[in-house]
Give the backbone structure.
Amino acid sequence: MSFAGLFPPATRRYLVTSAVSAAFYVLSIKAISWGQPQLSGPVLWGAILVPALCIAVQLWATLRLMAQVDEFMRALLARRFIIAACLAFIVASTWGFMETFAQVEHMPGFMVYAVFWVAFCLVSPFIRTSH
C-alpha cells in the first residue's frame, strides 16, 4: 500500500508540511550556529527569523489539520495540544526557577518548542477520548 493510501488527504498534507518545516527548522539552526561568527546586523536578524517562520508554519499546519478532521479527531487533537502546552509551560517555568535559585545551566527559550512536541508525543497514546 502506498503512502497516499495510508492516510486521508488532510493528514498527508499535515505530515508533509510538518516534515518539511521540521527539516528547514533543524537546517536553519545548524546554519545559524555554523555561520554565527560571520553573521551580523540585518543578516543575522533575518537568519534568526527562519526557524521562527518554520515554527509558525508547523503550528499553522496543526491548526489546519484540526479544522479539516471530524469533530472527534478535532477534540482529541485539541486536548492533546492543550495538555502538551501545559506540560511545556510547567517544564519551562520549573527550569527557569531552577536557573534562578539552584544555578542550573541555562536552557535556551527556543527549547520550549521541542519540549512541547516531546510532551505531545508522550501524552498522545494516553489521551484516547475527547472527554
Notes: The helical segments are 3-6, 9-35, 41-68, 71-102, 111-123. The mean pLDDT is 93. Residues 70-131 form one domain. The chain has five helices and no strands.
